[in-house]
Amino acid sequence: MTRLKNQEQIGEIGKSCVLLSRLFEELIPRVRPGVTPRELDRFSRTFIEKHGGVPSFLDYEGYPASLCVSPNEVVIHGIPRDEPLDEGTIVGLDCGINLNGYFSDAAITLPVGAISPEAERLMRVTRECLDRALEAVKPGARIHDISRAVYGHAKANGYGVVRQYCGHAVGFDVHEDPQIPNYVGPGANPRIVPGMVLAIEPMVNLGTGDVKVLADEWTVVTLDRALSAHYEHTVAVNHDGSVSVLTSWKYPN
Ligand code: MF3
Ligand code: CO
């Protein structure tokens, strides 16, 4: 079931995460009014390949790009196209790298120019959900402690939490067991143990948590077309019991 990593393997996954973090540092200033999702995707692919990695989303279950670009009501898995991003948009960027067989995964939601106070607050609270979730990662706790941290903070702020898509373990593949839901449900609730590497990714909506997939079979949108935010980090539980957030960057705000 859960494929635990030894400390050396965690180190290799960490290198993949460092490269991914450097990519996000490059992407953040490139998100401006007028940039196109396809330009951001092309930049990501070139950057990853230049540094010896493989874009892990490209061709994954048929996904056609290296980066997911998810504006406004798009929750996740937006396919990068040529329509420029307008001022006032919020946009999710999600990417993963396979570096020498070790997989990283991370996401951020960014403002395009000046955005509304409601969008600003949604982004801040969703990021706080991720921060609280990361604090819940410790040996001996359980996966649902992560779920509860996300759900409780989002609900306390009046937001909808997406249930159809979850976080997950990562490191030897794009997605591994266990799933990490952003709500406490009836599913498996394994104990968190050393050697786990987890991609935690709250998806939080201004309206309800309900979503649907568009006809392109990838783009996930909110059913009520309200704004959605998404942040993700890869985190490791080390064999000395400490916890390391392996992806990191300077947020623009
Ligand atoms: N970004 C997703 C995740 O965080 C995985 C991407 S699926 C892909 O779990 F098909 F878009 F690659
Ligand atoms: Co993920």
What can you tell me about this protein's structure?
This protein has helices at 7-30, 37-50, 117-135, 143-156, and strands spanning 54-55, 67-71, 74-76, 90-99, 102-111, 160-161, 167-169, 176-180, 197-200, 203-205, 211-213, 220-222, 228-230, 233-237, 243-245. It is built from four helices and 15 strands. The chain has a single domain (7-243), classed as Creatine Amidinohydrolase, CATH 3.90.230. With 253 residues, the chain is α+β, with helices and mostly antiparallel strands. The protein has a five-stranded antiparallel β-sheet. Strands 1, 2, 4 and 5 form a four-stranded antiparallel β-sheet that branches. The mean pLDDT is 98. The structure holds 2-amino-4-trifluoromethylsulfanyl-butyric acid (MF3) and cobalt (II) ion (CO). The site of cobalt (II) ion has 5 residues, from loops. Cobalt (II) ion binds next to loops.
Work out the oligomeric state of the chains in this entry.
single chain
DSSP strand tally: 15
Class by alpha and beta content: alpha+beta
Identify the bound ligands.
2-amino-4-trifluoromethylsulfanyl-butyric acid, cobalt (II) ion
Q: Uncertain runs with pLDDT below 50, 5 residues or more?
A: none
Largest sheet: 5 strands, antiparallel
Assign the CATH topology: Creatine Amidinohydrolase
> What helical percentage do the residues reach?
25-40%
The gist of it:
With 253 residues, the chain is of the alpha+beta class. Helices cover 28% and strands 25% of the residues.
